[in-house]
Amino acid sequence: MKKYSSTMKASYRHNSRKPSRRWLGIALVTILLGILFPWLISKISAVVLYPFHATSTWIKTSDSVLPLYLRSKSELQAEVERLQTELATGAAAQTSFSRLLQENMQLRSMARAGGEEQRLVARVLARPDYLAYDLLQIDKGTSDGVVVGAPVYTGVDSIVGLVVHATTEYAFVDLFTSPGFESTAYIFGPNVFAPIEGIGGGVARVKLPQGVFITEGQLVILPGVSSGVYGEIVSVQNEPTQPEQYGYISPPLAMNNLLYVSVGLNSIESRPVEEINETVRAMLRDSLRLSTTTMSTFASSSQIFIEEAATTSTTTAEEGLIQIE
Amino acid sequence: MTIPWRIAVLVFITWCLVAQLYLIAVPLAVWYLFKVDGHELILVSILVDGYYQAFYEVPILSLATIGLIIFFDFIKPQLLMYTGGNEMVS
User: Fold this and answer.
1) Which residues span the membrane (chain B) (predicted)?
2) Shortest CA distance from A17: residue in chain B
């Protein structure tokens, strides 16, 4: 019965409510006093909690074994977290740095590639994925010095095409693999000149008679363009019954890999034979014209020439007599 | 929970509050309030507020402790269960 009464819910409530109210009253009064006299309760707290403060300070600052162990463990954990954060940040920064370095080296090599020939570097805006195949769009136009007919290079000396249309802000480059393109190529190995024609799909071909040894990997250049390496032969089509053989050529870099190209500032577009003849004749006329020579200087030059000839003939006769003697 | 254990837990809670290890002190205090009445926590919280000179502004820790004690005083009878022998367990 006694146990029942002490464990019943009603009796529990009866016993627990009164002390709670008493504690609550004391606590509120103490808080009120603390608010009224904060300096007093601060001093009392400082005195009472001094052992706790001292222990905490000891653990945080002491060089004893236990605090050092506890502190080193927590410090090591914090260090590990900090290093992990730094590593993640550093990896991202390293990626950016590598990308910028690579881009910088690429741009530098392309800007210096031309040697005497002036070039400018352009970013490729659109590739054959988005344009008709064998056409590139670059972000430099006539305002930057791009002219129609200018050669376009990838890397140092790999020429890929010519500018066929230029606006002030951008330009289109027609690749040498475009159908209809014709030029003369020089093939290293057999060391022969051969006609090259674009056949589309990123491929051009050279046509050679049977008997000329061509094989895969031979380098093909366009002699019409200084430092104009076009690519290498990737496939050979040779049927003995046919009078000719074909070597198929593709550029060394896939079009999807093109990010920057360098553009020559001078056009290499072919000119008509008549225009070339006229230009050469004009240059010859200019070089042979006696524009600064007058008749008097011509006469005096003739007199000097005659006197020198007479002197020379006299000297020659005297030398002949000496030899006879 | 015996008296020595209560004192030990109370001392540890106080030390955690002084050392600013709140992530340990708060769950421990909640557990302590659930197991026992825990009115002595008010004294501890008043002292800690005084230690941090919170009485110059608002003694937030003391007021929060009083609120927690009232809350647990209200909620604990709702969580009591009676066994077949009419024993009360929580």
Assistant:
1) 7-34, 54-75
2) B73
pLDDT tens digits for range A301-318: 556 656 666 665 555 555
**A68 contacts chain B (CB < 8 A):** no
User: What pLDDT is attached to residue A248?
Assistant: 92
Distance of alpha carbon A325 from alpha carbon A291, whole angstroms: 51
* A221 and A136 in a common domain: yes
Shared-domain flag, residues A233 and A264: yes
Query: How open is the CA angle A124-A222-A161, to the nearest 5 degrees?
Result: 20
The domain in which residue A14 lies consists of: 2-48
- What secondary structure letter does DSSP report for B11? H
pLDDT at A247: 92
Q: What is the total count of domains within chain A?
A: 3
Give A145's DSSP letter: T
The per-residue pLDDT for A95 is 79
Q: Which residues of B touch A38 (CB under 8 A)?
A: 50, 53, 55-56
Cβ separation of B55 and A20 shorter than 8 Å?
no
Are residue A290 and residue A254 in the same domain, yes or no?
no
Q: Mean pLDDT lowest for which of A176-185, A218-227, B78-87?
A: B78-87
Q: Domains in chain B: how many in total? A: 1
Q: Which residues of A touch B82 (CB under 8 A)?
A: 9
Q: Which residues pair with B82 in a beta bridge?
A: B88
Which of A172, A173, A170, A171 is CA-nearest to residue A161? A173
Q: Tell me the per-residue pLDDT of B34-89, one tens digit each, with 9 for 90 and over.
A: 888 888 888 899 999 999 888 898 889 999 998 988 888 888 777 766 666 666 66
* Residue A65 included in any domain: no
How many angstroms away from the CA of B31 is the closest CA of chain A? 18
Q: Give the C-alpha distances (Å, rounded to integers) separating B68 from A57, A180, B8, B39, B49.
A: 29, 89, 21, 10, 16
| Contacts with A8 from chain B: Cβ below 8 Å | 86, 88
Distance from CA of B12 to the nearest CA of A (A): 9
With contact defined as beta carbons under 8 Å apart, do A210 and A242 qualify?
Answer: yes
**Tokens at A13, concatenated:** 């409530």
